[in-house]
């Protein structure tokens, strides 16, 4: 599973982290945010995306770490 897809489909929406960000952005702006978010996670902790990409499963430990990175990035952009 590609990293952006992992964030979009497995993690961020289920954590409701993107709800506010999505509510005031158009589709193109949301696509940019997802690309930036993926780049941030890839830069800060590439092993997290590798785990999801290789297994297709988002385990609790990986989910917790990924959630923290996503939340921090979204807060910094707010």
Question: What does this entry look like structurally?
Answer:
With 78 residues, the protein is mainly α. The protein has one domain. 82% of the residues lie in helices and 0% in strands.
Rounded mean pLDDT score = 78
Radius of gyration: 12 Å
- What is the domain tally? 1
Q: Give the topology string: H per helix, E per strand.
A: HHHHH
Assembly state: single chain
Overall outline: globular
Q: Strand pairing plus helix content: what structural class?
A: mainly alpha
Unreliable segments (pLDDT under 50, ≥5 consecutive)?
Answer: none
Tally of strands: 0
Approximately what portion of the residues adopt beta-strand conformation?
under 5%
Q: What is the tally of helical segments?
A: 5
Level of helix content? over 70%
Short description, anyone?
With 78 residues, the protein is an all-alpha fold. The protein is built from 5 helices and no strands. The longest helix has 18 residues.
Name its key features.
78 residues, mainly alpha, 5 helices, globular
Per-chain topology:
Blueprint: H1 3-15, H2 19-23, H3 27-44, H4 46-55, H5 60-77
